[in-house]
């Protein structure tokens, strides 16, 4: 797989995600280790300085699978808010971890359940809390 692209995370999201990863129920999960590695390589900025084209927590994004050509509209959420039927994807799901911090136009390779390789490219962000001035989400 290619070198992962640079990512940007808000300091608020980083604090909340680190608390999530510190919880005993989450810390032992393989997904927690993957998210932790992503957070370690992230460029961290204040919420008010977050570029509007970056996927943050609670962002509604459209992405395309460059391998299969499928388009997906997803909202990146914390685990308790995940609901696949409503396209709310947990940051602990492989695709959620992969999307966190990407900018519009960036792609990332990831393995879907079952080992199928995908290449996701963020094509647009319909809603980002920071860009909307919503710093409480």
UniProtKB/TrEMBL annotation:
For the Regulator of nucleoside diphosphate kinase N-terminal domain, which residue ranges apply? 5-45
- Residues in Transcription elongation factor GreA/GreB C-terminal domain copies: 51-127
RNA-binding found in the keyword field = no
Q: Which Pfam families would you find in this protein's record?
A: GreA_GreB, Rnk_N
Q: Which branch of life, at top level?
A: Bacteria
What keywords tag this UniProt record? Kinase, Transferase
- A Gene Ontology molecular function term of the record: kinase activity
Protein name per its UniProtKB record: Regulator of nucleoside diphosphate kinase
Native source species: Arenimonas soli
């Amino acid at each position: 797989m290619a070198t992962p692209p640079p990512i940007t995370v808000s300091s608020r999201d980083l604090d909340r995600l680190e608390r999530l990863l510190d919880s005993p129920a989450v810390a032992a999960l393989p997904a927690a280790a993957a998210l932790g590695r992503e957070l370690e390589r992230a460029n961290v900025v204040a919420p008010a300085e977050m570029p509007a084209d970056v996927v943050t927590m609670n962002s509604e994004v459209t992405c395309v699978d460059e391998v299969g050509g499928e388009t997906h509209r997803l909202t990146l959420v914390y685990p308790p808010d995940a609901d696949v039927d409503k396209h709310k994807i947990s940051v602990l799901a492989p695709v959620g971890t992969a999307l966190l911090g990407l900018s519009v136009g960036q792609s990332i390779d990831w393995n879907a359940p079952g080992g199928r390789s995908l290449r996701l490219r963020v094509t647009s962000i319909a809603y980002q809390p920071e860009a909307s001035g919503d710093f409480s989400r």
